[in-house]
Model the fold of this input.
Amino acid sequence: MSGNPHPRDRDRTVSDIRDFLLRAESLPSPQGTAAKLIELAADANASMDDVLRVVQTDPALAGYVLSAARASRFHGMSEGLDLRRAVLRLGLDLVRAHAIALSLVNQRGRTQCVGFDYPGFWIGSLHAAILMERLAGHCAALRGADAFSLGLLGGIGRLALATAVPAEYSALLAQAQLAHGDLAALERERFGFDHHELSAVLLADWHVPTALADVVYWQRDPEGGGFAPGSKPHTLAGALQLACALSQAALAGGDDELAAATLRATILGIDPATMREVLAESMPALNAWAALVGLPVPRPGAADSGTT
Done:
């Protein structure tokens, strides 16, 4: 929580990311339904009926959307729920986030990065999303749909690095594991940016609202983003940092992450008992989501959560 000891110019960082993306031979690329929803997000004249028509063409996404709409933030109001009501409940931003995640999960064979745990990455991302959703019930500034989307896609930069430069990133992962080092710091040293910053640029390219992309950019250092303390973006960035640390502590057994999570929870006004409750509530939901998207059921303490 101490912030970045060496602040960098954001415009320069984004420029470095753009150069990297232009040189990359391969990148995570939302396809099919996800690509259509990204196009709709860029169309000022698109309606929710347009979104519904796209979702209806994809049975897997339709099931995903219905499950999301029945989530706890809607207090069990699922009686008579149909796809139209589910789409209206979630809104375009969250439907698109689900579509992007589902599209990329189904491309799991594309990266050949040794040491990158592809299923573990997505389990960690789903867990962060679920934790964010539950944290929204304890932070007045959080909106459930925004929170879930951020948790789900906030770490996508790791997948992009593993896909774009598999050999180099494999070496960085091994170095971080061997020395118990800060992966993000190693990324900045090697590439000039880290996976959080890369995530933000990719999400902006996928027409995720700029305010949410800014939150992703500053998730490693919520106080460094110039957000007013207690504001929505400051709370979102802090909650995202908390969710990722909690997920890694639960799935990979990291004591340092648990300590970091406890400190961030205190800053957010969340007491330890509530934090433990949120974490306990997240596990059954994580198992259900993993089964829904065809990922292995996580074993606490034995997975790489992919959220460092």
Remarks:
- The chain has a mean pLDDT of 85.
